[in-house]
Specification:
It contains eleven helices and 14 strands. Strand 10, helix 9 and strand 11 form a beta-alpha-beta unit. One of its GO terms (molecular function) is 3-oxoacyl-[acyl-carrier-protein] synthase activity.
Length: about 400
């Protein structure tokens, strides 16, 4: 059974306006990626930071819920507020659930408090632990929206928000609710960025997934929210046609070299959707720009799509938004699927064009690639996380 997801609310390095984001996506505009200092000592690194202001939380919800992460959630929610509140009115607050993904929640807002504790032996008066708990994004959104259905946050590293979409579908399948607000949020966090730097996985310059010159990832930040329902809404919608997930638990940070878990997730998604690999028109790759992830993903893609399929990584446009990355990339697929029928261009893969000869060759899309006008396009969006946690989503446009 298909489940419908309506227009997303999006905040990311490309902006917060769907038209603006669509234009940047299909032009391969990397202007949102900027070199910034102050995140890693002694280095200026390229980050996908959102440069505009985000709204303050309503007075009654601060300070308990106040964090940059939750302000991102609010910014995304306000973009689709009419749809969200209409769902609460239509189904009742008990029948609307919230499932979000995050990696670090609001911990960056409390980071200075730990330095204060170390220096003075006590917490500063501004410290509130509730900002950083993993449940914070869902708890805040439930309080703001007034929903009373299940509300929880998942944290499975880079697959968090893809798992949130699959969990939302499960809630609908089981009849626990009639609508689910799902997606994810992760904002720039010094702890996370320095953790990746300690793994020597951060690129100072723009990341170049699958290039022989790749040097690592760029971290980004984003919040993305969808309203998922069993029935199609009145506005533009796409279908969640299928999803697959696996957990090979190969290593804490390195992927299984031959892509066993990634292959399983993609094939499970295809089977769930009742599709063959040849039915997929374009794949949004995980494509981090790290040596091992790109090698694994190339092998996995070659195994599943031996005939070839146009594909691209969008992370040079947005940075890797960690717990929000999968929802962000699903939103970019949503945007691509709902463009005007005459606009059949695929998002381009941004890199230096120098393929790694040690990897299976992939068919990277360019601005010249076009979807077929004969059949509605179907897109696969892949996310492969630490700990061997893998997720694949399949999205299709309305028929």
């Amino acid at each position: 059974m298909n489940y419908w997801i309506g227009r997303p609310g999006i905040v990311c390095a490309m902006g917060s306006d769907i038209t603006q984001i669509s234009q940047a996506l299909h032009a391969g505009n990397t202007a949102g990626m900027r070199k910034l200092e102050g995140w890693v000592d002694g280095r200026a690194i390229t980050l996908g930071a959102f440069s505009d202001a985000v709204p303050l939380l309503p007075h009654g919800l601060a300070p308990q819920h106040d964090s940059r992460n939750n302000r991102f959630v609010l910014a995304a929610a306000q973009q689709i507020e009419a749809d969200l509140r209409a769902a609460v009115d239509r189904y009742g607050p008990e029948r609307v659930a919230i499932v979000l993904g995050t990696s670090t929640s609001g911990i960056n807002d409390n980071s200075d408090a730990y330095a204060h504790l170390e220096q003075y032996g006590s917490w500063p008066s501004s410290f509130d632990y509730r900002r950083q708990v993993l449940s914070a994004p869902a708890s805040f959104l439930s309080a703001w929206l007034g929903s009373r259905g299940p509300a929880y946050t998942l944290s499975t590293a880079c697959t968090s928000s893809a798992r949130a979409l699959l969990s939302a579908r499960s809630l609908l399948e089981m009849g626990i609710c009639d609508a689910v607000v799902c997606g994810g949020a992760d904002t720039l966090c010094r702890l996370t960025i320095n953790g990746f730097a300690s793994l020597e996985a951060i690129s100072d310059d723009l990341c170049m997934p699958f290039s022989i010159n790749r040097h690592g990832i760029n971290i980004g930040e984003a919040a993305v929210l969808f309203l998922m329902e069993r029935r199609r809404g009145r506005g533009p919608s796409v279908r969640l046609m299928g999803g697959g997930a696996s957990s090979d638990a190969w290593h804490m940070s390195s992927p299984e070299p031959q892509g066993a878990g990634a292959i399983r997730a993609m094939r499970e998604a295809l089977g769930d959707a009742g599709l063959e690999a040849r039915d997929i028109a374009w794949v949004n790759l995980h494509g981090t720009g790290t040596s091992r992830n790109d090698a694994m993903e190339s092998i996995a893609m070659d195994s599943v799509f031996g005939h070839g399929v146009p594909c691209a990584s969008t992370k040079p446009l947005t940075g890797h938004a960690l717990g929000a990355a999968a929802a962000l990339e699903a939103a970019l697929a949503w945007i691509t699927l709902t463009r005007n029928p005459g606009e059949l261009a695929m998002p381009p893969h941004i890199w230096d064009g120098r393929a790694d000869p040690a990897l299976p060759a992939l068919d990277f899309s360019t601005t010249a690639h076009r979807f077929s006008s004969d059949t509605p396009p179907i897109i696969m969006s892949n996310s492969f996380a630490f700990g061997g946690n893998n997720t694949s989503l399949i999205l299709g446009c309305a028929q």
